[in-house]
Structure formats: structure tokens, C-alpha cells
Design a protein that fits this description.
Elements (H helix, E strand, L loop, with lengths): L6 E5 L5 H14 L10 H9 L6 E7 L2 E13 L4 E11 L8 H15 L5 E3 L6 H9 L15 H9 L6
Parallel strand pairs: 4-5
Antiparallel strand pairs: 1-2, 2-3, 3-4
């Protein structure tokens, strides 16, 4: 008789940092963005467990093995007048895909968003990732066609900051 693996979801704890950091790198490689991934385990520790946490993580475990994670934080909608839940990263290790684990993590986050009275739950998806887009749409998510992410980093961020005299 084959044993059915048990999948559980729980909040991350400080002892999970190395596993979370490893999966962040695996995600960056999957998305062909490893050259942009400069975060360290110490960065994650400060963001998740420091004096003023800025993000949270839930982990998916198959039996005793960590196989998935979702990193999220709150944003705010002036139109709704309420905060929202923003999913920054969702990753299931390749050997554990197609078992319903991503759906379980997303459902857990949806429950959390409702419990926290969030007005919406949102995330981004790379336009080339057709399997993910199809999966998200099958859950009822709408891929917004009229919105584009706008980002300023590095030298451009420094130039923008320097373009305005400091106010006292």
C-alpha cells in the first residue's frame, strides 16, 4: 500500500530561514532572474523576524520536507479604503508540482486576507509564464491587461532621490 504524503501549511519561523533563502534562489533561477537576486538570509531575517517585520512567509511541507513557500505583505488601496494582501513570491519545488500545493497556499492566503478584512488579494505573473497564468485564471483570478509594473532601482533611484532638494 502506497502512503499518501501529508501536505501541511504553517507560518515560517526563524529556523526556516536557510530553506526560505534557498527557495528564493530556486525561484530566481526558474524565472531567469538570478542575476537580480542579491538578498541574503540576513536580509530575509530582518524582513520576516526583525523588530518591524515587513513581510510574512507561509511554508508548505510534504511530510517533513519543505517543498513550497509564499512570501506576502500588506499594501493599501485608497480606492477601497482598506489594506490588501500582496503575494510577492509563490514557489513550489519542481519535483512537488501538480499536486495541488500552490492552490493550497493560495487558498490559505485568501483565508488570511478575509480574516484580516483585506479588500483584495493580488500578485503579478510574468507574461511568458503561460502555465501559471492559466492556473491563476482557473482559480478565478483576473490578469489585468491595462496595468504595468513601474520600478526605479539602483542608479536611477539615486538620481531620482537627488533630483529634489532635501526638505527639513
Amino acid at each position: 500500500m502506497t502512503k499518501v504524503p501529508e501536505f501541511t501549511v504553517r507560518p515560517a519561523a526563524p529556523e526556516d530561514l536557510s530553506e526560505i533563502h534557498a527557495m528564493v534562489w530556486e525561484l530566481a533561477e526558474y524565472e531567469h532572474l538570478a542575476h537580480l537576486c542579491v538578498s541574503s538570509a540576513a536580509d530575509l531575517e530582518a524582513a520576516l523576524f526583525g523588530p518591524r517585520p515587513t513581510a510574512e512567509v507561509i511554508l508548505g511541507r510534504e511530510d517533513a520536507q519543505v517543498v513550497a513557500f509564499a512570501l506576502f505583505f500588506h499594501n493599501y488601496s485608497t480606492f477601497l479604503g482598506r489594506r490588501g494582501l500582496y503575494l510577492e513570491d509563490l514557489f513550489v519545488r519542481p519535483a512537488y508540482r501538480r499536486r495541488g500545493y500552490a492552490r493550497r497556499l493560495l487558498a490559505q492566503l485568501a483565508q488570511l486576507a478575509l480574516a484580516r478584512n483585506c479588500g483584495r488579494f493580488e500578485w503579478t505573473v510574468l507574461d511568458w509564464n503561460a502555465p501559471a497564468i492559466g492556473f491563476y485564471q482557473s482559480l478565478g483570478a483576473e490578469v489585468l491587461p491595462d496595468w504595468r509594473i513601474t520600478r526605479v532601482t539602483g542608479d536611477a533611484l539615486a538620481r531620482l532621490a537627488a533630483s529634489n532638494p532635501k526638505e527639513v
